Amino acid sequence: MLDMDNERPYARAVQKLRQVGLRPTRQRLALAKILFEGPNCHVTAEILHTRVEKANLNISLATIYNSLHQFTDVGLLKEVVVDSGRTYFDTNISEHHHYFLEEEGRLEDIPVDKININMLPDVPEGKKFSKVDVIIHVAEEN
Questions:
Q1: How many CB atoms lie within 10 A of CB 90?
Q2: Average model confidence (pLDDT) for the chain?
Q3: CATH class in words for 4-138
């Protein structure tokens, strides 16, 4: 039996994009390969742009931003807003929370069952909770 990944190095990326209805353009394929063919990761557009440059690929930062938002819109990525000026994209789309390591500017996953949310306020009438995201900011001890 042939190993499809060795025969077609972008086969998994093509399949992932097609499953969610995105056309597998050259840029999307390159970004999907970087994002999804390794362990789960948290990236900003700038971090991903650095990885793209290290791979000797020519993809503009604007295209990376657009692709990250497209991937998020179709459910391939989870957007994690740390503060008003910092957004990460997470390849782990399962329900979970995060530590934000402030000095390192890095996110770490917290399994959903490690945080107990017992008391949430009542939602406004006619509304329901859609999700609860917890981001715990962590700083070095002085």
A1: 19
A2: 91
A3: mainly alpha
Selection from 119, 138, 20 nearest residue 32 by Cα: 20
Bridging pattern class, strands 135-138 and 96-101? parallel
CA 71-73-77 angle, to 5 degrees, is: 45
Q: Which amino acid is at 136?
A: I
Whole-structure pTM value: 0.87
Q: Where does the chain have alpha helices with state H?
A: 4-7, 11-19, 26-36, 45-54, 61-73
Q: State which residues of the chain have pLDDT below 70.
A: 1-7, 9
Using alpha carbons only, give the angle 109, 43, 135 rounded to the nearest 5 degrees.
40
Structural domain boundaries in the chain: 4-138
The runs of H, that is alpha helices, within 20-135 are 26-36, 45-54, 61-73
Please tell me the distance from the alpha carbon of residue 133 to that of residue 50, in angstroms, as a whole number: 28
